[in-house]
Amino acid sequence: MGEESEGGKMTRRERVLAAIGHREPDRVPVDLGAMRSTGITAAAYGRLKQFLGLREGHVDVFDVVQQLAQPEQAVLDYWDADVVDLGRVFLTEESDWKAFTLPDGQAARIPAYIKFAGDGAGGWLALADDGTPIGAMPKGAYYLSQTNFPLKDWDGADLGVLDRLPEHMGKVTWSALPCAPYHLPLTPEHLAEIRRRAKTLYETTDYAVMVAFGANLLEWGQFLCRMDQFLVDLVENRRKAVALLDKLVESHLANLEKLLPAVDGYVQIIQMGDDLGTQQALEISPRLYREIFKPRQRLIFETVKKKSSLRLFLHSCGAVADIIPDLIEVGVEILNPVQTSARGMEPARLKREFGKDIALWGGGCDTQRILPLGTPAEIAAHVKERIEAFAPGGGFVFTQVHNIMPHVSPQNIAAMVDAVRRFR
CB–CB of 329/286 below 8 Å? Predict the structure, then answer.
């Protein structure tokens, strides 16, 4: 499906690749849920299906930490989406899922391998494979909060602790392995299955396909050591922090060496992640980023470039404008979520200063204020304004800034989707 369709209309895959390549496509490409920060929470998804009269299928929570729904084909069609996550083809049998009740009482399903237990007070505890509690969702909460930090008390003196890194990672999240949400080891058999399913998705649809890999560094340090402790370590215990980061890089590179040959040729985009920003500034100084994280990112990202044809997508929330030139330098081609409410992330500035060098995947509708709190008319005007700012010359894929939160009304979601259809 590599040739442009008759009459100048592009296939979905062509549309996405044109935009990434800074060529203006026939219309702005659109994403819903091709990665874990462009989706919709299960509670909002269930109500949207009811609003649209979609009674078939299920509300499947593929990401139980963020309580995100896996968009079904009918919803992808309603959204007119152009890109999908490779992970969607791995949980396809009824036996892959088990029943679950969402915090708002809606019926749903979660992956069968997920281990949940009641907390005795109406909420849930998440358990690692060995039974270690790793997360909690108290009654009334909509998300899991991490509760286990395996390296919080490690002082860095015994570097042998890092030889058990996969074990430590497994006691933090079910997504410790690359190409999440796959939970199987990257054995030759599993890699062959990844390639088979990627090939099928490529040949039987015209969607652009994204594979989740992550390769997080700052975030994995925070997951393992606790956020506050790892930030302190970066300044006061550099030996510990650097040793952990180097072990993470070693692990990421080893997994990339296995994954890239399995997906290259069938998958177009590889999703990396590391939340480097807050609402007002970077989590760390630009100097610290350039000293510690940039050279390690470069090693990982250059491996993708040298050993595959995949386009490199980085998810980083927050005010990251100060280091966008650095991200471009180390090989990032696509930036998400384009958090336009953060300091320095104004649409006009991003497009003017960086729009020729990096594709902006997101920023299409503010998810902090406009989408949850605006009127349908305000949402439509906002979406139109964003498309006009980001779309000229290509380099833009429309999605809302971040996941659609549980209390966003279906009417507001529909207003955003309708506006995209009108103005894209």
Answer: no
